[in-house]
Amino acid sequence: MLTHLQVAILGLNYPPEQSGISPYTGSLAKGLNSSGFDVTVITAHPHYPTWAVQEGYGQWTRRETIAGVQVVRLRHFVPRSPTGASRLVSEISFGLRTLFARWHRPSLVILVSPALFAMAIGIIRAKLSPRRPAIIVWVQDLYSLGIAETGTGGRFITRVARMIESIVLRTADRVVVIHPRFASYVSESLSVDPSRIAVIRNWSHVPYARNTSSEAARNLHGWRKHETVALHAGNMGVKQGLENVIEAARLADAEEHSVRFVLLGDGSRRAQLEAQASGLTRLQFLDPLEGADFPSVLAAADILLVNEMPGVSEMAVPSKLTSYFSAGRAVVAATDPSGTTAGEVHTPQGGLIVPSGNPRELLEAILHLRSDTVFASTLGKNGLQYRLEVLGEEGAINSFTGLIEGLIQERQAL
């Protein structure tokens, strides 16, 4: 065991942010620190998914200790309306801050994607360091595919992003991806040597709400006993395409189905979604929940929703699925039936898949599960079993630890 090895983790998102990549980066840092590594995290101030720096933060540089991990927060440009251009400026501003920050001469640097341009700057810094550290890039989302599938850039921008992504990943000593389909894309489309790619699945960071009172949570949020509550938790951005859920709620209103759609969270499109949903009685918005309230509300819902805009297929694995499976509730995913998300739901037989952008089919799937509670319960139990057997945090951290030790020993032998 390489104890006291200096490890630096660079990424835009870190706790107390509760959604997206942040919980995984936080768990990794804490896990590596508990395994005997000296971990320093270089990150931004918490700002996601609201795209506003949280109250109490915002200093030019802030140092704190979270769960035994040294955290250095750097102030960077946070756009109020995160369009493609403004997000690019945001990434670059964070990358430039990391370029001149103190790294404490680590033996290993872990760069967290999808902040591609910040990662590129980080790799330049690492390569130019007198004691060049080993470099791992941890790919949570495929950056260039994200641009292509969400339509946030034209063909030229997509080609440039793919070229830079390829260079960044080929420069790293190891590339860690969260799904086997990511590994195939990184190897075949981004020309990374397969021997340098490792698949380590994301884990569930939400505990199984075994002792939660669903009745209390439902009463708290005004959910009636006879209602079927279909809840979407997480970011409300472009990729999620939540207009589809609003239109499904509109159909439920018109046809007077006893269904309540709930959108829990925040994001760049929440205000627009609330305006579009004005007047709907079967749609409810909830602010993000903290601590035990989040798993409690997931377990109190009847159905948990994944929704992706049409065209999104391979760029990401929704982090919310690991939390959903912990709740033991059936999942309905409106997505590309041949895409990565659909595969993640099919693997444990944890839910139903409907085409993205089709509110009628989304509503019909919910009504089907409402009418067949035994089937819905079976799907939920399947997802929970998968979470317990496959999506464990300890196994993932052990895989990272083994990967790091092997990489360092390989470099020492040169």
Automatic annotation (TrEMBL):
Q: What SUPFAM superfamilies does this protein map onto?
A: UDP-Glycosyltransferase/glycogen phosphorylase (SSF53756)
Pfam families named in the record: Glyco_trans_1_4 (PF13692), Glyco_trans_4_4 (PF13579)
Report keywords, A-Z. Glycosyltransferase, Transferase
Q: Which parts pass through the membrane?
A: none
Q: Does the keyword Transcription apply?
A: no
Q: Is-annotated flag, keyword Ribonucleoprotein?
A: no
InterPro entries with a match to the protein in the record: Glyco_trans_4-like_N, Glycosyltransferase_grp1
Q: Taking every annotated instance into account, which residue ranges of this chain make up the domain Glycosyltransferase subfamily 4-like N-terminal?
A: 19-203
Protein name, as recorded = D-inositol 3-phosphate glycosyltransferase
